[in-house]
Amino acid sequence: MITVGIDIGSITAKCVVLEDTRILGYKISRVKPNLEVTAKEILAETLSFVGLKREDVGRIVATGYGRNMVDFADKKITEISCHAAGACFLISNAGTVIDIGGQDSKVIAVENGKVLDFVMNDKCAAGTGRFIEVMAAALNLRIEDVGSLAVKATKKLKISSTCTVFAETEVVSYISSGEKVENIVAGVCDAIAGRIIAMANRVGIRREVVLTGGVAKNLGVKRAIEERLGFPVIVPEEPQIAGALGAAVLGQKA
Amino acid sequence: MKVGYLCTFTPKELIHSAGFLPYRVFATDRPINLASAYIQSYSCSQARGSLECALQDDFHAFVFTRCCDTLMRLTDIFEFAGKRVCNIEFPTKIGNVEYYVQELRDFIEVLREWGGEVNFERLMESLKLYRKLEEKLKQLFALSPDYETAIKVQQIEVRDAIKLVDEKIRTAKKEKEKPKVLITGSVCPYPKVYEIFREAGFSVKDDLCTGSRFFEYSYPDFEPVDLDSALKFIAEKYMNKSPCPTKHYEKDKRFEYVLKLAEDCDAVVFLLVKFCDPHFFDYPQLRARLEGMGKKVALIELEFPVVSFEQIRTRVEALREVI
Ligand SMILES: Nc1ncnc2c1ncn2[C@@H]1O[C@H](COP(=O)(O)OP(=O)(O)O)[C@@H](O)[C@H]1O
């Protein structure tokens, strides 16, 4: 059966088309103010990309914080269950899924694809992609370049404020005192890693640890998490689609 | 005239018999403005919201009963803000009835100073009315917890409250066979929060300060014959109400009570107000005991006024999905 998973996040929309256990294709787009329109457009775009029609699709599952706005979906499932399902579909021996998105982050303890426990931060920008975006803007960097720059650092500058607003002030004062940009961004990535590990300790960390969400593409954050954990973590080829993929996977079963 | 109170250990019968309206103060939908001049933002939002309400609305006086540290200090703040306040020392260690009867005697004097009139006959009438209300609420919650009603009846005349609950019992339907969640915690005066649980496909069981801690008592089995024995009746009634984490009980009464409630539930949600110390102190141990029973457990932190209903929804729906 062909299923579609649509993940309406805070910043991006993701759509995955799955035939049984084979990914036919996916798309990622920016979220527009109207979530229903965003969902319709990305569905049409992804279907035309894989050369299918609406009638070919057996089931559509929506997830993400905008899931309840996707009226045409056959089912709505929270991003907790979907990220777990998506990560375990890609990495079958996953024990912990860490998803860092644009405005939230979550740590999910999983076993054989089933959720055991989870914690979520969706109240505060610290520990989310938003935090990096704000700092990248202050440093005049593109978000894609933050990670590769961070791994070139010779030292990690300490960002001690948890609050994004105050942390930005710290970053600005590092700039004016002449610190190297790579050392500053390494500090920014490490600050995120610190927040995430603190949260992960509440559910307990078990290997393998899989990193999903847009921020998993940031090599600096990945490295910082690994340093703090003391072992390597796994980033799937396209970590940002894990939620949408999980929705499509769960659609096969539902 | 409204006499405000915050804690469910408040002897509302005495306030009522004196001719006042006992009015439970909750945080409201109004943002916290005036209260910020008196209280830090790291105090719980129930305390801040109640102070806001006290500063904006018209009250004759306020009654506190020693419960959590924050509410104890709130007593002083209310006084400092120029309010008429009485603080009754409810013993933290449950048991000393004689001591508390003396506190209640003193409270009667305060009520008289406030212009109230207390006598045996009137007190017996109030005792009867509140018992009737409590028993009816228990009946209603056994069918299906109705928080909108539970909150409303704590702010209106008890005779009207009885009528309202009667009506609700007539139309209430028994909760369907669905996965059941025990909601345990402090106060949450926002009925919409409970609807989220139902919309996610749960049936609800209550252990909250807005719910059963207001109406669940085991009543002493003697009939008061004079004012003093009526005070003894009140003291024993409140010492034997559903247990609260701000009190010390013989043995493990509070934990055992929660664990027993959880027995027929699939999941337990700790619905806690941020910075609510008494509940958070119990939380790690209680959570471990519940998980040991095989229950799925989740913590949902609230801040009043509640604005982020969708964030609560995601947590509740995710919990429903893992069962
Ligand atoms: N190529 C990239 N390199 C580094 N970070 C990225 C990249 N693309 C996206 N991100 C990060 O991912 C975040 C968005 O993640 P995503 O999982 O799509 O969020 P949401 O699901 O909440 O919309 C952005 O805030 C940004 O920090």
Report on this model:
- The complex is a heterodimer of chains A (254) and B (323).
- The longest helix of chain A is centred in the C-terminal third of the chain and has 23 residues, at 181-203.
- Chain A folds into two domains: 1-91 and 238-254, 2-Layer Sandwich (Nucleotidyltransferase, domain 5), CATH 3.30.420; 93-235, 2-Layer Sandwich (Nucleotidyltransferase, domain 5), CATH 3.30.420.
- The termini of chain A are close together.
- Chain A is globular.
- Chain A has a five-stranded mixed β-sheet. Chain A has a four-stranded mixed β-sheet with strand order 8-7-6-9, with helices on both faces.
- Chain A is of the alpha/beta class and 254 residues long.
- Chain A has eight helices and nine strands.
- Chain B has 323 residues and is an alpha/beta fold.
- Chain B has a domain at 2-117: Rossmann fold (3-Layer(aba) Sandwich), CATH 3.40.50.
- Helices cover 49% and strands 13% of the residues of chain B.
- Chain B has helices spanning 12-17, 45-56, 69-80, 97-113, 120-143, 147-153, 158-171, 191-199, 212-215, 227-239, 253-262, 277-292, 309-322, and strands at residues 2-5, 21-24, 61-65, 85-88, 180-185, 203-207, 267-273, 296-302.
- A four-stranded parallel β-sheet of chain B has the order 2-1-3-4, sandwiched between helices.
- In chain B, strand 7, helix 12 and strand 8 form a beta-alpha-beta unit.
- In chain B, helix 4 (97-113) packs across helix 10, helix 5 packs parallel to helix 7 (158-171) and helix 8 runs parallel beside helix 13.
- Chains A and B meet through helix 2 and strand 8 of A and helix 13 of B.
Question: What's a quick, concise take on this entry?
Answer:
Chain A is an alpha/beta fold.
Which secondary structure elements does this structure contain, and how are they paired or packed?
The complex is a heterodimer of chains A (254) and B (323).
Chain A: E1 2-8, E2 12-19, E3 22-30, H1 35-50, E4 59-63, E5 75-76, H2 79-90, E6 96-100, E7 105-111, E8 114-121, H3 129-138, H4 143-150, H5 164-176, H6 181-203, E9 209-212, H7 219-229, H8 242-253
Parallel strand pairs in A: 1-4, 4-5, 6-9
Antiparallel strand pairs in A: 1-2, 2-3, 6-7, 7-8
Helix pairs in contact in A: 2-8, 3-5, 3-6, 4-6, 6-7
Chain B: E1 2-5, H1 12-17, E2 21-24, H2 45-56, E3 61-65, H3 69-80, E4 85-88, H4 97-113, H5 120-143, H6 147-153, H7 158-171, E5 180-185, H8 191-199, E6 203-207, H9 212-215, H10 227-239, H11 253-262, E7 267-273, H12 277-292, E8 296-302, H13 309-322
Parallel strand pairs in B: 1-2, 1-3, 3-4, 5-6, 5-7, 7-8
Helix pairs in contact in B: 4-10, 5-7, 6-7, 8-13
Bound molecules: adenosine-5'-diphosphate (ADP).
